[in-house]
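Example 3.2
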Amino acid sequence: MSSELLLKLAERNAVIILTSASVDDCENVRSKLMRSTGLEETHVDCRRLDLDSTRSIRRFAGAIRH
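Structure, written as tokens:
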């Protein structure tokens, strides 16, 4: 996504959800994204999601639903 689109979404109080099999990698990308765009912590979330694991996918989907 472009930084312009991310900023527009944040202006509308959207939350951008980043996913990765590695929480550490996700947090690093999240930090870089917030620094480069000026997005606040409340607009960028980081979640574990391993697309090779059905269990991980179900867990992620369940967390998003609630």
